[in-house]
Amino acid sequence: xxxxxxxAEEKVKRRQVITLHLVVGFTLITTGLFLLLLKVYLDSIPExxxxxxxxxxxxxxxxxxxxxxxxxxxxxxxxxxxxLLKQNVNRNMRLLEIxxxxxxxxxxxxxxxxxxxxxxxxxxxxxxxxxxxxxVSDSTLYIQFNDKGIRLPLTSRKKFIEWWEIERVLLKFGIxxxxxxxxxLFQWNIKTVNFDKEDFQRFCTEQIAENKEKRKKYxx
Length: 220
What we know:
Blueprint: E1 3-6, H1 14-41, H2 47-53, H3 60-79, H4 81-84, H5 87-110, H6 114-136, E2 142-145, E3 149-151, E4 160-162, E5 166-172, E6 175-180, E7 185-189, H7 197-211, H8 215-218
Antiparallel strand pairs: 1-2, 2-3, 3-4, 5-6, 6-7
Helix pairs in contact: 1-3, 1-5, 1-6, 5-6
């Protein structure tokens, strides 16, 4: 027998999606401003310092374009966040961000600028992981109860709990509570279930009673 409970929370949260877009936006704005100021004031910088900064020099047009790209992204996040959260829109925006950051990362790497290259590399890796994670994510997370134990949602640090570890399971008022005998407590809000709650509660009580003796085997 198996029971599956849909959680009210989502695997990918709205704030996580928005935050990474904001990080990329601020990074592009900062990069554009730095390159623009460097282009304008390079001649007034002492020669000793200017020699080290020459590696950063690019055309004025590219500096302005990078800054505008960041400003455009930031404006979109702040004014059209709901539109940005649409799956296709978000994915296309991620791909555009990845392309821009990849170019900056390669530019920094080829010009032997380790700090900017590392910064862009980290953002690039985070964006690549985000596009993968957002792509494979189902909108709903589940907790599964079966004869072997309880399989927790992917966002949980612990993935599986055996019945001998559990003291009590309670499904009430739209909240599932899993109380372990070692004082660990797991709790989630759930959506509407399509099974009888009394049957579920009876199943959990029986499994806990049947596996209680196993505690002695695993406890030191």
